[in-house]
Specification:
The chain is mainly beta and 176 residues long. The protein has one domain: Sandwich (Jelly Rolls). The protein contains one helix and 13 strands. The strands form four sheets. Strands 3, 5, 6, 7 and 11 form a five-stranded antiparallel sheet that branches. The protein has a four-stranded antiparallel sheet with strand order 1-13-4-10, covered by helices on one side. Strands 2-12 form a two-stranded antiparallel sheet. A hairpin with a 4-residue loop joins strand 5 (90-96) and strand 6 (101-102). It starts with 22 loop residues before the first helix and ends in a 6-residue tail after the last strand. The model has no long low-confidence stretch (mean pLDDT 79).
Length: 176
Amino acid sequence: MSTFPISPLSLDGLTRDYWGAFDAAIIAQLAPLAENTCYQPKIYRAPALSDELVAAYGYASYGMKITPGAIIYCYFLAPSSQTSDLPGAFNVQIRDESLKHKWFDQPVPSYFLANAKPTYLSVGQNVMGAAPNFLVAPYPVVGNGLFLVEIWETSGAQQRIEVVFGVLEPIGEACL
């Protein structure tokens, strides 16, 4: 007898199906992959560690190569401080070079990419963790897998900026 696949994320109270929230929709789409041995979770970050310190009103661009056949399902933004789950102020644009497709019509503020749902709070250490921001639907990586991530710092102060992508990457030739 077969059962419906259930993602471990669907058990988390912060990602349940609430009106106006689409996290549950993508989690249901990803649930069949939870037990699939053809995919493994991997993270990609932009810009590179050496370039993540962006000057006041500065610009940084980063070319990122993701394995073709992979699925991008979320992104994480580092919080601006240990006591906040919101990122610093910057704008970002992501372009899929294989499809010549921009993810957004114009660069979007980091606030719209952040997921202001804290996953934990350590009162003794004043540390707050933020949840990933799931895409509306899984984004398949096609072609050569090249992406361009452009970042514009908008706060007027030098800050560390990174965008981390959650990806399910195919493993082995049999899975492609």
